[in-house]
UniProtKB/TrEMBL annotation:
Keywords: DNA-binding, Metal-binding, Nucleus, Repeat, Zinc, Zinc-finger. This is PARP-type domain-containing protein. GO terms for cellular component: nucleus. It is found in: Nucleus.
Length: 373
């Protein structure tokens, strides 16, 4: 019997409820260290199978391969269970599957049986065809270096066409602006590509410990129908005290928030910018501690996807590389709090996926701000 024990790999304490006994799997190839492995329940029916091009129903089994772009972003290729390209590379390290401990027991059993069956089948096929494979390898080597080079170039070309283009993320001071397109930013706020950030809040210090938060629905109660710097309230009364305690414990506080209205409202972009930044500045005053802020203004349904909009990790990468004074981040002590956790009634699962992609412990606001200190 194959033993699977990967609870130590998955640090997200939030466990989805009310899901059917179907799940999502991602297998990592042992041949490529940049590929990730995770398992979770499917949260929407928007993904399409890379083999058959059919939609993958919500809460159904989907298998995916997650590869790293050179610029640090994850790219996932999803498959139906029956369409997944099983190979010995993908199933040789099943103990590395993160999130396995979050599955229901019957799903764990199903997954383990699946892996055992696939491994046995692959081994049987491998043994039966070992001689044939050896002969074919020898024939391939005998074809000559020129044919091998042509084959290699063809594979590289095909591989390149499969990857979606990504936006350039190299940070340059010369590209920083005090306006976002036609909107003027308040003092200390700057724009780079599709993000707006608070250049330096008074008293803010670099730290190896990062306490990161979403804003709308997590720290602040806001409404898309209401515009204005005053149109917000605290989500939880304990927030100021909690943030002050973290700051005193040596944490750097950072807000990562999406705000597509800044991009979408072309005719009233200044109002959208003033509203978002105004709320953030008022919140920081109420919190009484310095906070670093990054606002992703890109739209959600564009190709190529905006690298800064959560669940993409662009805002985190910019903070880590450019705005933490070179101090290495202690991932074991750092964490992220957000309300978009894919629960019933949540508007999305962007926050939990953002945390997972980075490797941060994840909390929902109710758990973090309402639990006993």
């Amino acid at each position: 019997m194959l033993s699977i024990n990967i609870s130590s790999f998955f640090k997200v304490p939030y466990r989805p409820n009310n899901f059917s006994p179907r799940f999502v799997l991602l297998f990592v190839s042992s041949m490529a260290s940049s590929t990730k492995v995770t398992v979770e329940y499917a949260k929407s029916g928007r993904s399409s199978c890379k083999k058959c091009d059919e939609k993958i129903p919500a809460k159904s089994v989907r298998l995916g391969l997650v590869s790293k772009h050179p610029q640090g972003f994850d790219q996932t290729k999803w498959h139906h269970l029956d369409c997944f390209p099983f190979s010995s590379d993908f199933v040789s390290s099943v103990e590395d599957i993160t999130g396995f401990s979050l599955l229901q027991n019957k799903d764990k059993e199903t997954l383990e049986k699946l892996i055992n069956t696939e491994i046995a089948t692959l081994q049987k096929v491998s043994d039966a065809n070992s001689d044939k494979i050896d002969r074919k390898q020898k024939e391939t080597c005998a074809q000559g270096d020129s044919e091998h080079e042509l084959s290699k170039q063809k594979r590289l070309k095909l591989s390149a066409t499969e990857e979606e283009p990504v936006l350039e993320m190299a940070f340059s001071i010369s590209d920083v602006r005090d306006t976002y397109k036609d909107a003027i930013l308040l003092p200390k706020w700057r724009a780079f590509q599709t993000i707006i950030y608070l250049e330096q809040d008074d008293g803010l210090h670099a730290s190896s410990k990062i306490a990161a938060f979403d804003f709308d629905g997590c720290l602040a109660n806001t409404n898309v129908r209401r515009v204005g710097a005053d149109a917000w309230s605290l989500m939880h009364p304990s927030i100021p005290e909690k943030l002050q305690s973290l700051y005193n414990d040596g944490y750097k506080l950072v807000i990562f928030t999406n705000e597509s209205n800044i991009e979408r409202w072309k005719k009233s972009r200044q109002a959208a910018v003033d509203s978002k930044i105004g709320r953030l500045e008022q919140f920081i005053k109420v919190a009484g501690v310095p906070i670093q802020v990054f606002i992703a203004c890109g739209l959600s349904k564009i190709k190529p996807e905006d690298p800064f909009r959560k669940p993409k990790t662009g805002m985190w990468n910019i903070m880590k590389k450019q705005f933490n004074s070179g101090v290495p981040i202690d991932m074991d002590q750092s964490f992220y709090v957000g309300d978009a956790a894919g629960r019933q009634g949540d508007h999305s699962d962007a926050d939990i996926r953002f945390a997972q992609a980075i490797g941060l412990r994840f909390y929902v606001p109710e758990e973090f701000f309402e639990k006993e200190t």
